[in-house]
Amino acid sequence: MADETDEVLDSVGPRLRALRKHRGLTLAALSAATGISESTLSRLESGGRRPTLELLLPLARVHGVPLDDLVGAPRTGDPRIHVRPIHRHGMTFLPLTRRAGGVQAFKMLIPGRDGPAEPSPKTHGGYEWVYVLNGRLRLVVGDRDLVLPPGEAAEFDTALPHWLGSADGHAVETLVLFGPQGERAHVRPR
């Protein structure tokens, strides 16, 4: 067991260096983002310092990867994602991404009701991209009032007053990409 632990811990340094270089970060920039000294980061990457949870947690957060990825934890064998629904504003959000930070993906379900709901636009930081899978989505953004059928998409800055709901009272199913403070999903046309 000790040999296996040593092997796992010895592989952390090269992973950390590869992540940092892939993201184009210097030791100084990573130090500023994590609060870990440059010398400690350098020793972690070279294997001169054993990784601890206190050092790995901020590194995982800054790199936007699960802690398991930093230590090379073996997969559990079950490829399913066990989704925990989030219920907000009468809608259900199913998270489709598990990494912290960056653009997050959700399946959003708007339940059917007796009639269309009255819009109550809200604002918050971020940027949103919506794709309608089923139903007819009513999207109010600023002074625009749109109806999106299945197969249509929209993107908008969530600093604008916005509201999403059913256009006709029937259930609506969408995919939503949400990015914090202006971070946008990159969509490339053919």
Describe the structure.
The chain contains six helices and nine strands. The strands form two sheets. The chain has a six-stranded antiparallel β-sheet with strand order 1-2-3-9-4-7, with no helix packed on it. The protein has a three-stranded antiparallel β-sheet with strand order 6-5-8, with no helix packed on it. The protein has helices at 2-10, 12-22, 27-34, 38-46, 53-63, 67-71, and strands at residues 86-88, 91-95, 104-110, 127-134, 137-141, 144-148, 153-157, 162-166, 172-179. β1 (86-88) and β2 (91-95) form a beta hairpin. The chain is α+β, with helices and mostly antiparallel strands. It is elongated, with a radius of gyration of 22 Å. The mean pLDDT is 85.
Q: Which class of secondary structure composition applies to the elements?
A: alpha+beta
- SSE arrangement, N to C: HHHHHHEEEEEEEEE
Residue runs with pLDDT of under 50 for 5 or more positions = none
- Described by the principal axes of the CA atoms, the overall outline is elongated
Beta-strand proportion: 25-35%
Q: How many beta-strand runs?
A: 9
Task: Please outline the major beta sheet.
Answer: 6 strands, antiparallel
The Rg value, from CA coordinates, equals: 22 Å
How far is the first residue's CA from the last residue's CA?
51 Å
Q: Helical segment tally? A: 6
Summarize the structure.
Helix content is 28%, strand content 27%. It is of the alpha+beta class.
